[in-house]
Amino acid sequence: MKKTNEKILVSALAGMTALQGMSTTLMSVCAQENDEMTHVSVMNVKMSQKDELESKLNDSKKDVEEKTLALDSAKGALSVASKQVEILESKQDEKSQLVQQDYQAMYDAINSKLQPLLDEITNLEGQIKGAKKDLDDKISASQKAAADLEEAQNTLASKKDALEQLQRKLDSFKGEENLAKELEKATQEKDVAEKAVSDAQKNVDDANTVLSQATSDAENKKVALDQANQGLDAALADVSEKQKIVDEKQASVDSFDEDTTKAELEQAKIDLSLAKDRLSKAQESVNTATSVYNDAVTIQEKAQQAYDTSCQDLENTKATLAQAQDALAKVQEDVNNLQSQMEKKNEEIKGLNTKIDAAKSDVNKAQSKYDKALNDYNSISSPLDQAKKNLNDFETQYATELARLNQGSKGYFDSIGCSDLANYVFKVDNSAEGKLASYTNLGQVDDATSLENMQASIAYLKECNEIRKQEGLPELKVSAWLMAVAQVNANHAKYNIEHAGVYVTGENLAWGYGDANTAASPYRGWYDEEKAEYLAGNNNFSDIGHYKNIVEGRYTVTGYAIGTNGQFSMAHCQEFLDEVMGVDDDVQMTVSEFEQSFNDYCNNLKSVDSQHKTLQDAVKNAASSNTKDDTALKQAESELNSKKSVLSDLQAQLAQAKTDKKEISDNVDAKQNEVSKLKNSVKELSSQVKQKEKVKSEKESQLKEAKKNAESKANEKKDKEKDFANIQNEQSAIQSKIDTLSERLNHWDANKAQANQELQSAKDSLEDAKALAKTQKENANALKDEYEKALDVKSKAKENTDKYQSILKQKQDAFNEKVDHYDAAKQASDDYKNTVEELNVIKQEVSETTNIIQSLQEKQKALKTDIQTLKDEIVTLNDSLTKSKDKALPEQTLMNLLNETREKGSKVDLSKVEDATMKEKMTSLAQNVDALNEINGVLEIAKANYQTKYELYLDAKKAKTDADTNYNKAMQALNDYLNSQSTKETEVTTNKESVHTGVDTNVMGSMLTSMVAGLGLVGILHKKRREEK
């Protein structure tokens, strides 16, 4: 129950019939106790709080009883006031019928004599006015034809000159077919060339990637080879060094001869001196080699920097080239857009010329209307005749609109061509549809078909589409069929809380809601609350059906209606369908289109109604006025000026359109010049790219040469350092030998034994060094093979890159040539089309102007004859008109007195009525009119009294509701208190397993009935959406 209540908006429907006669809601608090239960309690309760709560409960109960009595009193007073209004309205209808019957009988009697005379006068006046109008028209037409003829002849000469110039320009082209073929061929060739450039660029990019990888691989392998060679050199040097040590040790062992040792010592001292000299010279060589190597490294760094700069410069130029190509494409696109605008502007100019022709026709019609109004004004003899004539003409002209004033929505449906569907939906008969239609009172206040309620429905249609947009769904269109169906269903819902079930649609119903886009909108329940239920996992259609209808993706059309002041306040109805079938004259519009259409219809009706009332007042006031009404003349003059203004605006628009076309043409020329400049820029940048690629290649060669030279100088430096190290080692060896020989002589025997031991150790070390050198040599040889293979791969990749670079240049040059060819062909084709279009327009204008000249010449001849004939006819008609007016004057005076009596009653002086019987009937009519006016006054007072009683009833009902709320709160507070005290502070002993102590609230059946009648109920109909017929 709680979930249901949360989804239903409670409506304040105080005073509605559904609540009348319902019994006052009664609530009682009952303490229920089991007879077999034994209570043993030790109470520890604060009695003061309980007494206070019980006191509040008693006070609120008394307040409910007082407010119930007040509500019943207000309801009785309201019923009395309603009955008074009903009695007075009945008397009003009875007296109105009597007045109308008396008036109609006298009107028919007078009119039977007057109308033939008026018809004759009207006929004569119409003939005279027609003749005068024709005469004025003929004279104006003759003058205008002469001026138009001169203008047309000048225009024709100008058009022929323009035609000759365009024809000469057209003859200079190759022909449309040849131009089209050339453009198609150029387009195909450009596309092919562009693809070839793209393919070639991809090949270059791929080749550069391969070359870069090969270069990197070769350099890595070179580094590995250099490291291996260095290891091998070090190993070989170690072998050599250790061999020397062995030799030295062997010589040392062999040299253990004292005399020989002394001689070697002396020789060693000499060798040491020589070694020192060589070491000094070797240091100088190392210093020189280091300086040369440093210079080579500096040259290499500069070469590297120059190479990097050339690479960056090349990339920058390529980027600039790409930007220029993008700019060229954009400007070319601008040219195409401008040419498209040129075509649209030509269409606009053509359309404006058509509109100008129509506007000229409208000006001519308005001029004729003005001439007629002027002639009418001059020919009317009195203000009364003029006022009647104006009213009669207006009622004849706007008979349809006047008839629709009280038809409500049916009049609108008729106006948009939906008469058949409106007649079907609103027809009352014994069918199910007819019985449903019986709830509808077309156009009446509070009815769903009233224009006011139909206007109000638009806001709800907009709110629905806003919801669908938020859900990512297409907006629904408005269907005239569903609008009519929604209106009869809404009227049915004003008196029935249920779906009628007559038409097969998706349908949402609601009662008691308020304005759209507010917290009281029916969409708060239909959509907000039911969507929350759906998202919470509730898939029961009876709970979420309104929401599902609103967000159903298959639905394409809708209709909405509201009925006000029904038995259940305001009733809302929205219909949905995916397709309207079997209704031939249904009209569907977007909501904005429907709003515009409906507002235009209402505004037109309001305007017609206002004008009609003004003309009726003018007839009433004309008898006492001596001044003729010039309203029609002023309106005709205003309309003429308006039409001339429209024509002037269109001519100004045409001039502006031609100016715009000239501006667009200038922009096309400017853009084409920009295209030419950009093409030259692209060519120049392409050439720069080629040149900078060449520079990059040169710098790359220089860098390689510098690296090679630096490597050579590094090797030379290494050799010098090696020589220096060898000499150092030699010097050290000699010094060691001297030391050894000296030490040997001093410790001869011990040293000899030591020499043999060192010899064996040196031999062992030599074998280890030889083994390592062998391994290093094998590794260096393997890396050398890999390096040579990498160089071969790099060389082939470089050849491949150079080949694809050459192909890319060829393809780029070919593409540029094809683009130039395409641009020329496109420009030629566009120029040809524009020229043909302008030529056709001029030819049409020449033909039209020639026809106009011929027509004007023939028209001038015929007008001269017509003018004289009309002058003679007008003289004869005026004589006949004077005689007819004299005959009609007495009857017209009597008719005026009758109409005045119908309005003013006994205030009218009837002494001038000569016919005694007619005078007696008019006196009786005056008395009945006075009585009717008196009833109307009393009725207004009774309605005001009813409104006052109704507002008092609403106040009493609200006070009763507030009292009920306070009583329920007091009851709940006492119940909560007793429960809490029972739990905390009461010890209970029973003779059974359970004890029940508490307060229950009993709601009587009448209370439930009252709540249901007061709720804003939400209906839901989910039926089969389409039925095969």
Automatic annotation (TrEMBL):
Keyword entries, A-Z: Coiled coil, Golgi apparatus
Residue ranges, annotated region (Disordered): 675-727
Keyword Coiled coil: yes
Pfam families the UniProt entry points to: CAP (PF00188)
Coiled coil feature spans: 43-70, 132-203, 314-404, 825-887
GO molecular function: small GTPase binding
Gene Ontology CC entries for this record: cytoplasm
SMART domains (UniProt xref): SCP
One biological process term in Gene Ontology: Golgi organization
Chain intervals with Basic and acidic residues compositional bias: 690-724
InterPro entries in the record: CAP_dom (IPR014044), CAP_sf (IPR035940)
SCP domain residues: 455-568
Domain of life of the source: Bacteria
Cellular compartment(s): Golgi apparatus
Major localisation: Golgi
UniProt protein name: SCP domain-containing protein
Organism ancestry: Bacteria, Bacillati, Bacillota, Erysipelotrichia, Erysipelotrichales
